[in-house]
Specification:
single chain; alpha+beta; 25% helix; 3 helices; 122 residues; five-stranded mixed sheet
Amino acid sequence: MLKSYLTRLTVLMTSMESNDIHGRLEASVNIFVDPSQKAQVIDALEKVENIEEIYDVKGEFDIVSIVSASSVEEFRNVLHKRIMKIKGVKSTIVSVVLKSHKSLSNIQIAKQLPRPSKNLPP
């Protein structure tokens, strides 16, 4: 059976230097899946090393994932050779992160940093 996939890649960055995430490209990959395969798709996504987060959602998409890669080429390989090859994945819509303004990981890192001493000289 021939599968057809629609991948709409919205890339709003001009270079990797534009990305403010520790030199890594980060993108939201919104995934449409066959409802009867959703659990199996989530299980397969959990095994993809570059996927940082996976959310089972209700709305326009079935699954939202956050993918991290060291380059556009690595990201393209993860998307086309891993995610799109999973049985039950119909299509994806991708949005590349240009800059993170607020993130749970940033908050967790900030909480771990030492606090300045209140007894500092003026």
